[in-house]
Amino acid sequence: MLVNGLAGGSSSTGTITPGGLYSAPSTASAQPITIGIRGQSSSATVTFFSFSAGSVVSTQNPLVASYSITAPAAAAVSVQFGLDTSYGFSTSSVTAPAGGTVTVLVAGMRASTTYHMQATVELSNGSQLLDTDHTFTTGGIPTERLPNLTAQFGDGTPSPGVDLFSLLPYNTGNVLTTVATDLEGNVIWYYDLESADEPFPIKPLPNGHMLVLVSPTGYLPGGVNEVREIDLAGNIINRITIGDVDQALVGVTSYQIASLHHDIAALPNGHLILLGHYELTLNNMPGIPPGTVVLGDALVDWDPEKGPVWTWSTFDHLDLLHAPFGLADWTHSNAIIYSPDDGNLILSMRNQNWVIKINYQNGAGDGSILWRFGPGGDFTLPDGEAPIDWNYGQHYPTIVSPNSSGVFSLMFFDNGNNRLMDSNNDVCGTPGIGACYSSVPIFQVDESTKTASVLWQDDLFPAYSTCCGDALTLPNGNYEFDIAYDVNTPNFSHIEEVTPSADLVWKMDIEGILAYRGFRIPSLYPGQVWPATTPSSANRALPRHTGSTIKASPSPRTIEQLP
Fold first, then answer.
1. Is residue 539 part of a domain?
2. How confident is the model over 15-26, as pLDDT tens digits?
3. Residues 288, 329: one domain?
4. Domain-embedded: residue 48
5. What is the SS3 assignment for 272-286?
6. N or C end: fewer C-beta atoms under 10 angstroms in the chain?
7. What are the angstrom distances between the C-alpha of 399 and each of 34, 94, 337, 475, 476?
8. Does some domain include residue 45?
């Protein structure tokens, strides 16, 4: 490429890259500028645009910067940032469809710290322009608002990413409850609810926003109860209140939802599956005293344009006489996931001791229960695994195999409430019977034969978390789980990453506030993976789980084959 006949150009006439990206000189040239290709006389279309340094300003969130820069049409802008000019972290790209100013929210920074950041503008032909380096100093967070977090490291390197927390306060203090931290326990992002309301829970969305279900303390009526889509600065993009839901259900269902609670699922088509509960007074029900009030659950498929387009109720599909924890809080569902292979829904019902699959079929299903997984359900376990290895009061099922139907792998946090310990159905904690404990199993589930077996399980004994929690597999092959409410360590929650042999790689202790959920995400941005913290040798002090045992039963899929 030539500028005024000179290959690559010069400082006085401007420079050009082999790919055809021309940069004008810093001062106007006194002579005409001619751009050409050596050995060719053909013409080409040339697009001119102004490129000047961007600007960085603060937002309403003291840990989030707003970086703006002018970019041509169809260019994609991302920002790299870090403690020095080696950066190390990056945002997702934001496209400028019509050209003009593009703004990128930069999040993932510690409080009261100076960061370097630089925008990268990628043009439609693949060429890149780099902005100058900018610095930004984050604001502080009052000490009394910070959750008490302590991180420890064992041997090995933790899986990359950050942890996202839904914290539930034990009291009415003003501690931040919706936070993301690095693996050293530093808060690097938060959403300030500015009240006693709780995130129940919060989840990242594919568009880079966060989805938070705001619930009154204890998810009881009387406070804010709504779903919010927020950006990283905390701006509310969309919201659905409980009033919106109930108004839309008039004429659609015979009930009104008292509260949205515990979970919400975002579907690939943009719909949301809302989880709510409502009370029903029973009369003329054989085996149940007249006037009995039952609290059950309902699902609502919410189309952002149309409102409710599919609904489902536990009262229509479950036997009221199956009530392991009584009828006052009959089902207590706590998690919803979508099965992409067949378009159905999987629902965890803690007080039924069941994980069920619902015939949803992307909104065309009749809501019938396809199977019930757990004691007294539709599946059988091999000799020696039942009843002790069934799920009791479980939370947060996840599918950890590439497929979600047929023969697949299912993981969850098994709280172990009232676990049956032997073939006599003796309940844990009974004198002469073993103590109750929690576990994290991975089951191989065969929907056709209605059989299941334990592929892998970490018995967390003596830990016994009577509520809450989650479990998931990590990209490096490890597992992470939230021991939220261990009766042996009151006032503490523990997030732990372990290897397949249950060696502790990383642990986060949360004191004075309940970690309803705490789980690893690759970063705060879709498509970006932030590096794991590399601890010093002085911080490596974690042993194997005390009292922990690992079970791995023979099966066609070995533990090494699990994703």
1. no
2. 877 766 667 776
3. yes
4. no
5. EEEEEEEEEEECCCC
6. C
7. 60, 31, 9, 14, 17
8. no
